[in-house]
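Researcher: Sequence recovery benchmark, item below. Answer with residues only.
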């Protein structure tokens, strides 16, 4: 019997919302949760502090230096067959963000129309009290 190699992945999710709209991202076909929606994220090789994630985002010119970290939520672990996802949710107050093609704002009331991975659905349900 061959032992399955478990891949540890660190997803640093960015929560950008004004309460009425939220920044979401459509996942592509090539990875887990193909074509589902989650929050914009930066994946790292190890667990990072929110401050490090913020610096990384600035270095990649995704956000500007005026961005403030509003809140950091406890790390969630999501176990899949071949992967362990360590999800950190970081709420940002962003004055400017570089939107890629797959990243868009949606009204919070319309989130339920999107296919969400369970970890995202649970987090957003708790955050917005759906």
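Model:
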């Amino acid at each position: 019997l061959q032992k399955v190699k478990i891949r540890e992945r660190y997803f640093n999710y960015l929560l950008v919302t004004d309460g009425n709209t939220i920044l979401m991202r459509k996942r592509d076909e090539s990875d887990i949760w193909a074509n589902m929606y989650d929050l914009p994220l930066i994946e790292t090789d190890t667990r990072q502090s929110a401050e490090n994630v913020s610096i990384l985002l600035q270095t990649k010119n995704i956000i500007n230096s005026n961005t403030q970290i509003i809140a950091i939520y406890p790390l969630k672990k999501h176990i899949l067959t071949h992967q362990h996802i360590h999800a950190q949710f970081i709420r940002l107050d962003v004055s400017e963000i570089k939107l890629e093609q797959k990243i868009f704002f949606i009204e919070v009331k319309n989130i339920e129309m999107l296919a969400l991975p369970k970890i995202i659905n649970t987090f957003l349900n708790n955050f917005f009290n759906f």
